[in-house]
Amino acid sequence: MLRYTVDSTGEGSAHRTPAPAPEDTPAVVADPRRPRVGGLIPGIKLDVTLETCVQCVAATRDFLPAHYDADYARASGAPQPFINTMFIHGFIDRAGTDWAGPLSRVVRREVRFHSPAFAGAELHASGRVVEVEAGGSSDVVVGLEIVVRSGDRLAASARCDLQIGAAARYPDSNER
Question: Which parts of the chain are coiled coil (predicted)?
Answer without folding.
Answer: none
